Amino acid sequence: MSSPSINSAPRWDHRALRFAIGFPVVLSAAFVIATSSLSSRLPSPVAIMWDGAGARAFVPFGTYMLVAVGTILLVGVALLLQTVSLARPVVMRRILMALGIAADLFLVTVFAAGLVGQLNVADARNSHVDTMVLLLGSGAAVTLALVMGMLYKPDEKWSPADDRALERELLLEANPEAEDDQWSSWVHARSSIFVMLGIGFLMPAALLVPLVPWLSGLLVVVALVIAACLFYRIYADQDRLQIRIAGVLPFLKTQAGHLDSATATTLDANNHGGWGPRLHHNSRSILVSSGAGVMLNFTDGRSAVLGTKTPEDAESLAAHLNAWR
Fold first, then answer.
1. Does some domain include residue 116?
2. Which has the least CB within 10 A, 20, 227, 275, 312?
3. What would the pLDDT profile of 190-199 be if each residue is shown by its tens digit?
4. Domain total in the chain
5. How many angstroms separate the CA atoms of 106 and 124, rounded?
């Protein structure tokens, strides 16, 4: 059910969050671009594990790249996300930032050293990890991590979001009842839908990794995109309505003066293009199932349809929006 938003101090550093996701993505993309140019000079299959006697485990080049990129992304994001919480001390967040960058750069170095050691080698069994690349890359990883740790300033700076928060606080001070004029709710498809996505996409993707790695990665991406389109957040305050797909991607944003009416109703997804976000000629809709929802009509003749979790939510949201007029 919907719950009113509560004004409070921010808990997350959004700049650090963007960096925690963006840095591993950019790093892995650079690794793919740099190493793909070497594929013609590598044996087939390539070695992925070594011991004192030489290589002892082998995979196709595509699988090697998939393992490398997956490890860089997972480890990098997992470590760098530890810097996002504003509840942690500033010094700890600086240390965590340096550790996350060092770990991600070191992983790139390890995977790159493994490939460089196999250049122009006819049989991967005779290859070894290139120690020069490993040593130089590790040193660079530590150095860059220390520099970033010293340059990183985790203290929150004043931003437009702070201006809006100040305006809300001043409004609440003048009108304590204004806090009740905020409405928010997450809407998502049934859990069984996400389970079916996993069965239909992720299980075949896992089986295809040794055979067609690029197709395996494509199936994972498709599954994630479909899953992201099946949940969204509705937020409304005193003068605006926002709907964000997966809580991030803006789908609908309108001001109080642009809304003509809001009506709670029962919706059939088949009549509005199906599940997920839909853009039509003069309207848009976002539904994750047939059922309760709200029909919006705007002053310029456009319309929109959005689903809610329960009929009570639909009535509550419609009443909140109609109170604008």
1. yes
2. 312
3. 888 888 888 8
4. 2
5. 23
Q: Per the omega criterion (within 30 degrees of 0), is the bond before 45 cis?
A: yes
Check residue 93 and give its pLDDT: 85
Helical ranges in the chain per DSSP H: 14-36, 61-80, 90-116, 131-151, 160-174, 191-197, 203-208, 213-228, 311-322
Q: Which of 234, 177, 227 is nearest to 200 (CA)?
A: 227
| Residue whose pair of structure tokens reads 């049989």 in the numeric block | 123
Split at pLDDT 50, 70, 90, the class of 72 is very high
Q: Which residue, chain included where needed, has tokens 């997992």?
A: 78
DSSP state letter for 199:
I
Task: Give Cβ neighbours of residue 226 (< 8 Å, ≥ 6 apart).
Answer: 197, 201, 276
Q: What is the 3-state composition of the chain as percent helix, strand, coil, each rounded to the nearest 5?
A: 55, 20, 25
CATH of residue 300's domain is 2.30.29
- Kindly state whether residues 134 and 28 are assigned to the same domain: yes
Cβ contacts of 65 within 8 Å, gap of 6 or more: 32, 35, 36, 213
Q: What is the value of pTM for the model shown?
A: 0.47
Please name the residue that has the structure tokens 């709670």. Answer: 264
Provide the total of helices (H) and of strands (E) in the chain, helices listed first.
Answer: 9, 11
